Amino acid sequence: MPAHRSGKLFAGIGGLIAIALAALLFPLSASAHAYSASYTTIALTKSGTVVTYAIDELSVIEWAGGDANGNNMLDPEEFDAVKTPFAEVYNKNVALTIGGKPQTPVKIENYYLDRKGDATKVFLQVRYPAPSGGESVSLTDKLYEKDAKTNYVNLLTIQFGSGRSTAALSGGDRTWAMQVTDDEFAALPADVDQAAAANGGSQTGGASQAASVTSDASDNAAAENGGHGATSGWYSFFKLGMHHILGGYDHLLFLFSLLIARQSFRQYFTMITAFTVAHSITLTLTVLGWISVPGSIVEPMIALSICYVAIDNMARPHVSYRWLLTFLFGLIHGMGFADILVGMDIPRKELGVDLVSFNLGIETVQLAIVCAALPIIFALHRYRHARKFVLAGSSTALLLGGIWLVERVFIG
After folding, report:
1. Are 225 and 265 in the same domain?
2. What is the tally of structural domains in the chain?
3. Whole-number pLDDT of residue 218
4. Are residues 73 and 144 located together in one domain of the fold?
5. In a domain, 175, yes or no
6. pLDDT value at position 203?
7. Strand stretches in 23-82, DSSP E
8. CA distance 119 to 83
9. Where is the composition biased (Low complexity) (predicted)?
10. What's the CA angle centered on 80, arms 74 and 82, to 5 degrees?
């Protein structure tokens, strides 16, 4: 193929990739809220089942309005105005079933706002009837089920007696279920205050830990068989990690920016390894509470990392020591990965397994993307005009990263 024709071909390919990236990610950069997480605690007692449902403030504003002054926050008066719509959305989308029968809330116990740093959650506490020994208990969450633009997860903490367990409801798997045995029912506290006291102490009590994500079919099977109809809870966190990075468009764009620059296989290997090690370190330290950096710092830094790598790609035809740069930025991205788990009260005895499972989910998707992309990238770099592909892709990454940076610094 003549040089000028191959040059036009690669310019065209680069342009198409740039257009595709912009078309895919620009609406998401302009979207106010592409990711939403709720935190639900289910406390089983002999006097009732108390569900405490918490979700980020911005989600409530999107459902119910109420933000009269347009500052993306709910002032006390504004919060009072959205309490009823908030409860209506909850009742419409979150269903508790006991013994195979849908339950109606006995009463709404409380509403409140909890502001911690730059993160605010809206809480709703609802009381349901108590289960009996031998009955199944399940919770189904259909919030955002028909909204393809929002990546949503409900992180559950289940308290029963002196035992606690966790689960993550996301994607199409939105039902948690467990079977309350006669022995477990006998060990349940009399009320919520007693339950809180029990869980404030040792978390290795006698109640068996059997909470997990199940389908309706397995819930029914559990009820019929008199056992815990559940697979191991680690898998729900593995899937959560997969969904988290797939919905993290900034992380994916950063990975794309790293890969498109021409490098040897050894350079790619050391770079990806450095990123994996770095984000695993800060992910773990953040979830354990040993480090804490506000999201108002972490999120702009993630956007800045995209811009920096994109500029580096355009400025240097042959990159070197990319692994060191990637390690430093990986430390920042790890804190971004951790944000969803920080608000979850994971029992210490489950923390190790859940954290490893979550990280493995992230790594599985990341490795799949790298394995799929590298053969294509190596093939493109065989041609003399591949540089145009790098420039087009990096320019698009710089544009989108810049938009995110401005949004996160000046809009929040």
Report:
1. no
2. 2
3. 38
4. yes
5. yes
6. 34
7. 35-44, 49-56
8. 19
9. 197-212
10. 70
396 and 280 belong to one structural domain: yes
In a domain, 324, yes or no: yes
Q: How would residue 207 be classed by pLDDT, with cut points 50, 70 and 90? A: very low
Scored b (16 or more CB within 10 A) or e, 241-271 reads bbbbbbbbbbbbbbbbbbbbbbbeeebbebb
The token duo for 123 is: 């809480």
Distances (CA, A) of 228 to 209, 336, 365: 10, 35, 30
What pTM did the predictor assign?
0.72
281 with 391, same domain: the answer is yes
Long-range contacts of 71-76 (CB under 8 A, 24+ apart): 72/32, 72/412, 73/120, 74/113, 74/120, 74/122, 76/113
* Residue 406 near residue 315, CB atoms below 8 Å: no
Q: Is-contact 94 141, C-beta < 8 A? A: yes
Find the helix packing angle between 322-342 and 348-380, rounded to 10°.
140
**What does DSSP say about strands 49-56 and 94-98: parallel, antiparallel, or unpaired?**
unpaired
Domain check: are 256 and 143 in the same one?
Answer: no
Q: Can you tell me the distance from the alpha carbon of 187 to that of 198, in angstroms, rounded to the nearest whole number?
A: 11
Statement to judge: residues 406 and 368 lie in one domain: yes
Tell me which residue range forms the domain holding 369. Answer: 3-32+247-411
CA dihedral 239, 249, 69, 124 (to 10 degrees): 0
Which two tokens mark 172? 């199409």
Band of residue 220 on the pLDDT scale cut at 50, 70, 90? very low
Alpha-carbon span 405 to 69, nearest angstrom: 24
Q: 212 pLDDT exceeds 50?
A: no
List Cβ<8 Å contacts ≥24 apart for 358-361.
Answer: 358/237, 358/238, 358/240, 358/241, 358/244, 358/283, 359/241, 359/280, 359/283, 359/284, 360/238, 360/241, 361/237, 361/238, 361/239, 361/240, 361/241, 361/242, 361/243, 361/244, 361/245
Mapped onto helix, strand or coil, the DSSP state of residue 140 is: strand
Same domain, 307 and 337: yes
| CA-based nearest residue to 94, from 60, 53, 140 | 140
User: What per-residue confidence (pLDDT) applies to 192?
Assistant: 66
Structure confidence at residue 199 (pLDDT): 56
How far does Cα 411 stand from its chain's mean position? 22
Same domain, 292 and 179: no
Adjacent-strand bridge partners of 140: 95, 175
Domain boundary among 233, 265, 282: 233
Residue 204 lies in a domain: yes
Q: Is residue 12 domain-resident?
A: yes
